[in-house]
Amino acid sequence: MVEYTTAQETEATGILSQIYSSLDRDGRLRLAERLGYGGTDASKLRSLRRILAGEIRYGSKVNVTRFFRPTTTVDDPFPLRRVPDIRIGSVQPDRIRRNPDIGGLYQIVSQVMYVRETEFGLVSFASYFNSGASRTISRLFDDYNQRAAEVYQTDFEQNPRASPGIIAIAFSDRGARELAQDYDVSIPQVIATENEGVQSVSSYGVALVPGGTPTTQGYGRQSSFGTRRLPKSRRDEIIRYTRSVSKRVYGIPLQT
What we know:
seven-stranded mixed sheet, two-stranded parallel sheet, alpha+beta, 2 domains, about 25% strand
């Protein structure tokens, strides 16, 4: 009998979260049944969400690009697919000792590609685009979603995010490729600056990072939200099933 490690359990929960986000309601019900959950449809979905609810360890950076559409346009301006079922963990005591005023806030930051219509034709350029800071996940995602849509709203004089001439925005590398093809524009190279001031080539995408307070220590990377332990009675079967379908069915490679 295979004995699965804690790392494999964490990975399985993270992969299940990705699978869950890609399914419609009927698909989620079938997934819940496959994992052994019964009762009413509402009960099945509730049980599934319970094991997938994750926590971000404060100080970590998490890629959340998959929760946003690849592109938006002036006629379809909102990028958000759905708000993930996650929460922000409490600030560690050692961080509070170093900085008693720390607020434990997070922020959504992104590198996006814009397509602008000018008198000389269409041009593309890369830029940062961020949300405000909060500890509430739904508020962060809703704020980012609203701000992204406001870029197109140039008919309101008091809109500080309005950008005249913008006709499309890409929120991922996939989106950048799609806009390059649709509008016959180039894909600008993304240059990221790390905390130490070192510049490197980066990618288009969206991430959750600690925000609202200055930092000089940087942040660690967290690849998934799956930090809740799986129920003991179903743990091994859930991990086994997830590992068997991850790459073969959903194209998600295993790391452990």
